[in-house]
UniProtKB/TrEMBL annotation:
PANTHER family: TOXIN, YALI0E33011P. This is AAA family ATPase. SUPFAM superfamilies: P-loop containing nucleoside triphosphate hydrolases. It comes from Rhizobium ruizarguesonis. Gene3D superfamilies: P-loop containing nucleotide triphosphate hydrolases. Keywords: Plasmid.
């Protein structure tokens, strides 16, 4: 598991799992929100700048990346040695987000948009940041892959690392 990518809906626990893995494996962890958004969620980062930042992060021999962004996964998929999909029920994701609250300096309005976006994860069609796209990435990945359906599944997995 030299280069792991964790994908899933908002609030599924991607950041938590990435931090736990990074601590155990002593790998750097990269949060795709940091590449996708300008500081304080002031808007989306220009795509060429985001792609450059992702490429620089992926240049290492060992890393963990986490995020919902299928377009970024497409950029690094050939380097990913372990693909982890957090397929957590939407209701649990929403609950997790509400418990966590807004992070990174975003506004209340942006948080409401995040909740709505999270609710649409299984409904979006022909969209890279959706259940359907994540399922296609997962099914097509030929190296190590793991689908976790709950926080207890993730905790059990971590006990093996």
């Amino acid at each position: 598991m030299d280069r792991a990518f964790i994908m899933g809906n908002g609030g599924s626990g991607k950041t938590w799992l990435a931090q736990q893995l990074a601590q155990r494996l002593r790998y750097p962890v990269f949060h795709l929100d940091d590449f996708h958004w300008l500081p304080n969620f002031a808007g989306e980062r220009p795509r060429d700048e985001r792609n450059r930042l992702v490429a620089e992060a992926a240049d290492g021999n060992s890393w963990i990346m986490e995020g919902i962004y299928g377009s970024v996964l497409t950029q690094v998929l050939s380097l990913v040695t372990a693909l982890i999909w957090l397929d957590i029920p939407d209701s649990e994701c929403i609950s997790n987000l509400i418990q966590r609250g807004q992070t990174g300096g975003g506004t209340d309005e942006q948080f409401e948009e995040l909740l709505e976006y999270t609710r649409g994860y299984r409904l979006r069609k022909n969209h890279m940041n959706s259940f359907d796209a994540h399922e296609q990435f997962f099914e097509g990945h030929s190296l190590q892959k793991l689908k976790l359906g709950s926080r207890s599944d993730a905790t059990a997995f971590l006990a093996t690392v």
